[in-house]
């Protein structure tokens, strides 16, 4: 069964809304002050470089020639006799030389010390016949042996042998003489260079004489 329309209650009436103001998506940006364009700086133009001056001519050689001429003139004037007589500097120097004579320094005379000339001096003499040993003696660092023999002391030429032996142990230090005594060979000498306590060992068949010398 249909219901009758409700006539007692009024229905509201809808009014259309006024048109809304449309906004953009972003809010408006504020406006800033813009500076006017600045003029560009241009460096000042450089003045043109000065032109190089031509080098001045050197007159050094002129001065050198002038100095040489002056030096020659002075030297010539110094050697002229007239110039020396008129020069006041020369006369003053002459007066000073005559008024103050220089004396030669005196030195004490040095008397040279007389030097003693060394010579060979005999300090030992040994005589014998046949083979023998001499007595022990002290020889200096530099000494000499002088020997002589007599060829007529034996029927034929004979030996003359002289050894220098060490007195402490009898060892041979040197053999300075080893010869034959005969006519034309009857003497000689030998210099020794080892000192100390020594004796001479003589081997011979005839007569002999030995002198031991040192420098004094």
Detailed description of the structure:
The structure is a single chain. The protein is an alpha+beta fold. The chain has a domain at 130-215: Jelly Rolls (Sandwich). It has three helices and nine strands. The protein has helices at residues 60-79, 81-86, 88-99; strands at 120-129, 132-133, 137-139, 143-149, 158-166, 172-181, 187-192, 196-204, 207-215. The strands form two sheets. Strands 2, 3, 5, 6 and 8 form a five-stranded antiparallel beta sheet that branches. The protein is elongated, with a radius of gyration of 70 Å. Residues 83-88 and 90-95 have low confidence and may be disordered.
Record field, number of beta strands: 9
In terms of DSSP E residues, the strand content is 25-35%
Structural class: alpha+beta
Largest sheet geometry: 5 strands, antiparallel
Q: Fraction of residues in helices? A: 10-25%
- CATH fold field value of the domain at 130-215: Jelly Rolls
User: Mean of the pLDDT scores?
Assistant: 76
Radius of gyration: 70 Å
CATH architecture descriptor name of the domain at 130-215: Sandwich
Number of helices: 3
- Poorly predicted ranges: 83-88, 90-95
End-to-end Cα distance: 192 Å
Order of helices and strands: HHHEEEEEEEEE
Shape descriptor reads: elongated
What is the CATH class designation of the domain at 130-215?
Mainly Beta
